[in-house]
Amino acid sequence: MRNRKAGYACKHCPVETTLDIIGGKWKGVILYHLMNKTCRFNEMRRLMPGISQRMLTLQLRELEKDGVIHREVYPVVPPKTEYSLTAFGETLKPIIQEMKRWGDRYEHHQEQQLEDVDQNKA
Amino acid sequence: MRNRKAGYACKHCPVETTLDIIGGKWKGVILYHLMNKTCRFNEMRRLMPGISQRMLTLQLRELEKDGVIHREVYPVVPPKTEYSLTAFGETLKPIIQEMKRWGDRYEHHQEQQLEDVDQNKA
DNA sequence: CTCCTTAGTTACATTCATGTGCCTACGTCA
DNA sequence: TGACGTAGGCACATGAATGTAACTAAGGAG
């Protein structure tokens, strides 16, 4: 997300605010992985084969700026950086977990839709 | 969202699936309003001053296709169309409500950050 | 002395999402 | 007879989001 430059849906809608933080193509998944454990940069790349180096950096920076994750740089060589949820980021866990559960259910729902085909309606 | 044409983050991540449905600039807010009550098309436009006619149509169509909302057209004149959550869409309520609550808390958090400024870190 | 690794950065290109403006059908109201 | 309101559709334009490729620093391994 983070595309609010084009204007907000309604003024001050908290749902919109939340989606600003965790929406977008990658952030949800990033947070999902960080929920389990602290991760290094390339470790996350391996967890998310689809993401490019650049995008991962950008998304992590935004999450950091929003105070959701913490970035710990170790001045060693080769470089070592660890990402983890902040205490505030931990408060996102219920949302992410709900989203995971719902996502599972949705996939199940999709299969059913293929059977229903016609008599849908609620 | 619905920008997965460029590929998925990880294969089969339920969080990603969920964000496909409710992510994007408008869908969260649309669902937020439909959680409270059935709405007509122009009624929603009034609730979300920022959205254009075209985008509202597009988003509603996608939500309908995903089986989350129901579109009831009354063959009267002037046209009347009512949008409501399907039973399946109702299952999204916990997520939307969590997002609303978190959004509220986040705004509160931001104010604090302005004070902390330096000694942040978790 | 060359290559490997990590965690980036930068410039450039493209694709997707979203926005704008104009058009319609029909019945009602003035 | 003409304007109004609803729920859109369509063509076109723009900008945001994302992708690709090449580059870097520093120490260790060979």
Commentary on this structure:
Two copies of one chain form a homodimer. Chain A has 122 residues and is mainly alpha-helical. The first copy, chain A, has helices at 14-22, 27-36, 41-47, 53-65, 87-90, 93-116; strands at 39-40, 69-74, 80-85. The first copy, chain A, has a single domain (14-121), classed as Arc Repressor Mutant, subunit A. The first copy, chain A, has six helices and three strands, in the order ααβααββαα. A three-stranded antiparallel beta sheet of chain A has the order 1-3-2. At the A-B interface, helix 1, helix 2 and helix 6 of A face helix 1, helix 2 and helix 6 of B. Chain A binds a DNA duplex (30 and 30 nucleotides) through helix 4.
Largest sheet of chain A: 3 strands, antiparallel
Distance between the termini of chain A: 29 Å
* Poorly predicted runs of chain A: none
The number of domains of chain A is 1
**Strand proportion of chain A:** 5-15%
Count every beta strand of chain A, where a strand is a DSSP E run of 2 or more residues.
3
**CATH superfamily of chain A, called what?**
Winged helix-like DNA-binding domain superfamily/Winged helix DNA-binding domain
Average pLDDT level of chain A:
87
- Read across the widest sheet of chain A, the strand sequence of neighbours is 1-3-2
Structural class of chain A: mainly alpha
Gyration radius over CA of chain A: 18 Å
Counting copies of identical and different chains, the oligomeric state is homodimer
Question: What is the CATH class name of chain A?
Answer: Mainly Alpha
Written as H for each helix and E for each strand, in order along the chain, the element string of chain A is HHEHHEEHH
